[in-house]
Amino acid sequence: MSARENILARIRQKSGRDGMTSEAELMLVREHMARHERGPLPSMAMREPVQHFIDECARLKTTTAEVAALADVPAEVARYLAAQGLAPRCVGWHQFSSLDWPAAGMQFDDRIASGDDMVGFTGCFCAIGETGTLLLLGAPGTPKATALLPETHICVVSKARIDATMEDAFDRMRRETGEPPRSTFLVSGPSRTADIEQTLVIGAHGPYRVHVILVP
């Protein structure tokens, strides 16, 4: 028995349940998730999601830019990195490797980010207008390390996949993925903390910069 299985078995035992999780128990969980009722929504939920997302990004110090098509993304990445005084190089998700990066003077490394990479380039499952948040789903083809390890995170967001509220985003996830993914994570601006003497520190647990490129 692995350490994980041992821990889960002990939790079940303390809960008065023996053995492995049964299919009947799993079905009860799935039924509960399927009939999950949405809670009260904020009044701001009625605002137009795309503009609300842009406004919230600005509040969170996430910069945004809009391009006419996905093919224009490499040029925008090159422009942004030059404005930040960064080298024209990024590591990114495989799904974007076919874009014409050399034409924009960019070097695109198709691999998972390491601690030495300065710029990580990703997409996202969807975005949330209510909070200016990116919703990313961890999977072999969309590694979260590329969004979390580099000091600069650049993310492509389709305006058609900006949902008004977090509830809308979770409804989309249930509708399009079926079973919840093993890893789901939310990015709301550059990493920050004020744990030590209430002094705000940027980049404490993730990127110093987050730049969102909006595409149709």
Briefly say what this structure is.
The protein is 29% helix and 23% strand.
Structure overview:
- The chain has 216 residues and is of the alpha/beta class.
- Helices cover 29% and strands 23% of the residues.
- The protein contains 6 helices and 12 strands.
- The strands form 3 sheets. A 6-stranded parallel sheet has the order 1-12-7-4-2-3, sandwiched between helices.
- The chain is globular.
- The mean pLDDT is 89.
What is this structure's SSE topology?
Blueprint: H1 3-14, H2 23-34, H3 49-59, E1 63-66, H4 73-83, E2 89-92, E3 107-110, E4 119-122, E5 126-128, E6 133-138, H5 145-148, E7 152-158, E8 162-163, H6 166-177, E9 183-187, E10 192-193, E11 201-202, E12 209-215
Parallel strand pairs: 1-12, 2-3, 2-4, 4-7, 5-8, 7-12
Antiparallel strand pairs: 5-6, 6-9, 10-11
List keywords for this structure.
29% helix; alpha/beta; six-stranded parallel beta sheet; 216 residues; 12 strands
N to C succession of SSEs: HHHEHEEEEEHEEHEEEE
Secondary structure: number of strands: 12
Structural class assignment: alpha/beta
In DSSP terms (H or I, runs of 4 or more residues), the helix count works out at 6
Q: CA-to-CA gap between the ends?
A: 49 Å
Major sheet = 6 strands, parallel
Mean pLDDT: 89
Residues in β-strands, percent: 15-25%
| Radius of gyration, taken over Cα atoms and rounded to an integer in Å | 20 Å
- Lateral arrangement of strands in the main beta sheet: 1-12-7-4-2-3
Question: Share of helix among residues?
Answer: 25-40%
Give the overall shape, derived from the CA principal axes: globular
Which consecutive residue ranges, at least 5 long each, have pLDDT under 50? none
